[in-house]
Specification:
The chain is α+β, with helices and mostly antiparallel strands and about 425 residues long. The chain is about 20% helix and about 40% strand. It contains nine helices and 21 strands. Strands 1, 2, 3, 4, 5, 6 and 7 form a seven-stranded antiparallel beta sheet that branches. A six-stranded mixed beta sheet has the order 11-10-9-14-20-19, with helices on one face. Strand 5 and strand 6 (about 180-185) form a beta hairpin. The longest helix is centred in the first third of the chain and has 16 residues, at about 115-130. The relative contact order is 0.13.
Length: about 425
């Protein structure tokens, strides 16, 4: 089918043509008070056609298409290319000689009956409701997705990758006196039978009950330990500063700093598309460029930007396999772990904060300067141990200063479903706004 599209596009005067097609089957089940509140299954086929016409790149996106409409779509693509006025590289990738091999991870999602998935969600809700402090479960959600991505172009490229997963979480409301807190613990896995409603329910309860009875604390500078999930959140919002696209557009403070020391020697940050712990192993990007492991910060030294075809051409660099959704982004961005346990990280701290939640991650962050000011919650650290819960505080600082004030890195590396990975990290001092 796609080969016919390509032949038709070339006959219309396109110099090169590419089809990026995604076929996905998804399921969303919501349970409330032991009953199914929503059950939606959808199957969608989408494609983006890109083509070079008279040196300009045009594109058109289509959904649930058929061959009869393709001629009109190609005409629309050509019309879009004609109105492009920006002088930027227009590139269709010819492919590489070699691509990394990703083992075919079997998925049981199609084999499990819908009734079993609904029953799982009901059991998860019931497990959370067992706790005496749980006032209600706002919703319990089960999701799954099975996706096939294919890239075919006029230069002979023909690639396919799969991504299957399922996951669930229950949003519990916990109350003790007038103190009301919400908590959930999401889990994303490859196979349905990896989900355990009892274990997941208990994890949600543990989070929710631990937050009850929290208070603020006096403003001041404190040593801070970010847990592995919150430091991964910080890496996420600052990931754009490592993009060659941001460099080209003067949107990153790292421009002109390749080869310079920007962090302590203990800091090594890698983009690792095939990491064994990652939920998704990514052999090639959305432009068909092979993905590979690369160090963005190597023992404190900034080694270079990640890029897509266009930004690589503009900066005279080689494409790094980071062209996704029309822009530049990492695959699995990971802070390499240290050798310390959480107990080791907490031990030297007499009076500090252990942060387990951050909010306002986009509004409170300035990627150009590195400054951040974020609402936070967690636990007071007293004499090297976790004490009482803390809420209604604001943690402020600068990302680059933070990277140079790391007092310890944990060994508890955790990768989330978005491909961000971090261990727990001890920062020697940060400003905390409280009472």
């Amino acid at each position: 089918m796609y080969q016919k599209w390509i032949e038709l596009g070339l006959s219309k005067g396109l110099k090169a043509l590419e089809i990026y097609a995604v076929k996905s089957i998804s399921l969303n089940v919501t349970v409330y008070q032991g009953k199914v509140d929503k059950c939606v299954k959808s199957e969608v086929e989408q494609a983006t056609i890109r083509g070079i016409y008279r040196g300009k790149m045009g594109s058109v996106s289509i959904e649930n298409f058929n061959d009869q409409d393709v001629s009109n779509y190609l005409d629309e693509l050509i019309a879009n290319a004609k109105v492009v006025t920006v002088s930027e590289p227009a590139i269709i990738y010819k492919g590489a000689k070699k691509y990394p091999t990703v083992a075919d991870e079997k998925s049981d999602l199609s084999e499990v009956p819908l009734s079993a998935k609904i029953d799982f969600a009901k059991k998860l809700e019931a497990e959370v409701l067992k706790n005496k402090y749980c006032a209600q479960v706002q919703s319990t959600i089960y999701i799954e997705s099975q996706t096939v991505t294919r890239i075919v172009n006029s230069k002979g490229l023909n690639l396919t990758r799969n991504a299957n997963y399922c996951g669930a979480y229950a949003v519990g409301v916990f109350a003790k006196g007038e103190d009301i807190q919400t908590a959930y613990d999401i889990k994303i896995v490859k196979n349905f039978h990896e989900l355990d409603p009892v274990a997941m329910g208990k994890a949600t309860v543990k989070k929710g009950v631990a937050k009850l009875g929290g208070s603020s604390l006096p403003s001041g500078e404190y040593p801070v330990v970010f847990d592995n999930t919150t430091f991964a959140d910080i890496l996420s919002v600052y990931s754009s500063i490592f993009s060659a696209e941001a460099c080209y557009r003067n949107l990153t403070p790292l421009k002109g700093k390749v080869g310079e020391k920007i962090a302590l020697e203990s800091i090594t940050l890698v983009d690792d598309p095939l990491n064994k712990k990652a939920l998704f192993k990514i052999p090639f990007d959305d432009e068909g460029v092979p993905c590979k492991k690369k160090k963005l910060i190597d023992k404190g030294v900034f080694t270079g930007f990640i890029n897509n075809l266009k930004s690589a051409k503009l900066l005279g660099d080689k494409p790094s396999g980071n062209g996704f959704h029309g822009s530049v982004s990492p695959t699995n961005l990971i802070l390499e772990p240290g050798k310390l346990s959480l107990k080791d990280l907490l031990a030297p701290i007499k009076d500090g904060i252990y942060i387990t939640e951050l909010s306002g991650l986009h509004a409170g962050v300035n990627t150009s300067s590195g400054d951040f000011s974020l609402q936070a919650a967690g636990f007071k650290i007293k004499d090297g141990k976790l004490d009482h819960p803390v809420k209604m505080i604001v943690v402020s600082g600068n990302f680059f200063t933070l990277l140079n004030n790391v007092a310890g890195i944990g060994k508890d590396l955790k990768l989330n479903e978005d491909g961000l990975g971090s261990p727990s990290v001890h920062i020697s001092s940060l400003m905390i706004g409280g009472q």
